[in-house]
Design goal:
The protein is an alpha/beta fold and 444 residues long. Strand 13 and strand 14 form a beta hairpin. Helix 1 crosses helix 4, helix 4 packs across helix 7 and helix 11 packs across helix 14. It has a six-stranded mixed β-sheet with strand order 1-14-13-17-15-16. It has a four-stranded antiparallel β-sheet with strand order 2-8-7-4, with no helix packed on it. It is globular.
Length: 444
């Protein structure tokens, strides 16, 4: 019997329309806009100014604190300006805008496709190189990876878990990366194991990716301490806490972190980036992005330079369909609608989903019928209907006591609600407000 997490979850249609589409390299645009904050934590500090000439892979903004990440130029050319641009959130944020001239890389990067297995770095050296390379969680959270590898005093990791689940409908970038770069991911896994000082790693992959499971299982036999764990298809199994429960049957406590139960979780895309940083000296300047949708003429998986306009990706996939209702940054469950496609791809851009008008339209909100479906599907054991009502009434103390901060924003509650209540909208409001209140309280 396949493993999964025991509490809640839903089974939305998978719609993996781009599955099996080989990764294609998107042409470098004429201009890129590279935000200096593409991660959770403090924004990076710009190191360049208008008129500076930069090379591909060069640091253009340095980490602004421990929880922060370096930003590198994804192209070569001249800095047009450092200015605020619209990002995926709809707000203007500082970015480095570069006019592209050729594609000249810094000399220390190994651009060959040769697999490099051997490495002899110590744990602290690996963490330092991950920091220097600007690597963040590429499953969507964008948490700086060097922080996860820096185990706090008094804590100890005994297992590394890799997230190859890709449970979000439509998205296939991780699946295709496992098919095309399996050994690079396995070498990256060994590097992460060395950094953490663990002898065991488990790569969780949902059972709707049989080709990835087979190729990874066959190759993992020659990598000591690495095992492949097929999992039952169940959303949101890609959540850290759900994946830990499914794979090693440990429960992260409310308000806790994976390290509290001896686990560290990284995405397979992040692991590939770690391989490139350590073995090829390549910083995180490009990533695989799925471009998809039921009306899209050419669903695809693209290797894209950071800073490339989303409009370029859509054009490559055949352009915006006539019946487009929304363009989503990410998948349909956790992604967010864009108000313009003239925004840049960032380190956290896993997919661009073009939804048609029928899919994108929200039905009229009805009264809650107290069916408790939202409670039964919540993977965190919360009461979504109650948190929504409390948030609507700005009852923040009660929102906090209902543990709204434990919400992983998976959208299962809203997906299953027969009354089409805007549950997640209000829970997000309540969660962010309570987190601000908690931060203010801690600073006193």
């Amino acid at each position: 019997m396949l493993k999964t997490f025991p509490k809640g979850g839903v089974h939305p249609p998978e719609n993996k329309l781009s599955a099996g589409q080989k990764i294609e390299s998107l042409a470098i645009p004429k201009q890129v806009s590279i935000p200096i904050s593409q991660h959770i934590g403090a924004p990076a500090k710009p190191l360049v100014k208008k008129g500076d000439v930069v090379k591909t892979g060069q640091v253009i903004a340095e980490s602004g604190g421990f929880v922060s990440a370096n930003i590198h130029s994804s192209v070569s050319g001249k800095v047009a300006k450092v200015d605020a641009i619209m990002d995926a959130s709809g707000y203007k944020r500082p970015a480095v805008i570069i006019d592209v001239e050729g594609d000249e890389w810094i000399e220390t990067i190994d651009r060959s496709a040769d697999l490099k297995k051997d490495f002899n770095l110590e744990a602290q050296d690996i963490v330092k190189k991950v920091l220097e390379a600007g690597i963040v969680g590429m499953g969507g959270a964008t948490f700086p990876s060097h922080v996860k590898l820096s185990i706090p005093p008094g804590k100890k990791a005994d297992v590394l878990i890799l997230n190859g689940v890709e449970c979000e409908p439509y998205l296939t970038s991780d699946d295709q990366l496992m098919l095309e770069k399996p050994e690079e991911i396995l070498v990256g896994t060994q590097i992460l194991m060395k950094a953490l000082g663990v002898n065991r790693a488990i790569i969780g992959i949902e059972n709707n990716k049989p080709d990835s499971i087979k190729i990874m299982t066959d190759l993992a036999k020659s990598y000591q301490g690495i095992e492949i764990q097929p999992l039952k298809v169940q959303y949101p199994q890609g959540g850290e806490k759900q994946l830990i429960k499914a794979v090693i049957n440990r429960e992260v406590p409310s308000g806790g972190l994976p390290i509290d139960v001896g686990a560290v979780v990284h995405n397979v895309g992040t692991t590939f980036a770690v391989y490139e940083a350590i073995q090829k000296n390549k910083p995180l300047i490009e990533r695989v992005v799925t471009v998809t949708g039921k009306s899209v003429s050419k669903p695809c998986n693209l290797m894209v330079r950071v800073g490339t306009p989303v409009s370029d990706l859509i054009e490559f996939a055949g352009g915006l369909p006539a019946d487009t209702g929304k363009v989503i940054n990410g998948g349909p469950m956790m992604g967010k609608a864009l108000n313009t496609v003239e925004i840049p791809v960032t380190k956290g851009t896993s997919g661009i989903l073009i939804m048609n008008e029928k899919e994108a339209s929200r039905r009229e909100v009805q009264n809650c019928i107290r069916c408790a479906k939202c409670v039964s599907v919540c993977p965190m054991g919360l009461s979504p209907y109650l948190i929504q009502q409390l948030s609507e009434k700005a009852m923040w103390d009660e929102v906090e006591s209902e543990k709204a901060t434990d919400c992983i924003e998976c959208g299962s509650c809203m997906y299953t609600c027969p009354s089409d209540r805007p549950l997640l909208d209000y829970i997000r409001l309540g969660k962010s407000t309570v987190m601000s209140i908690i931060r203010a309280r801690q600073q006193k």
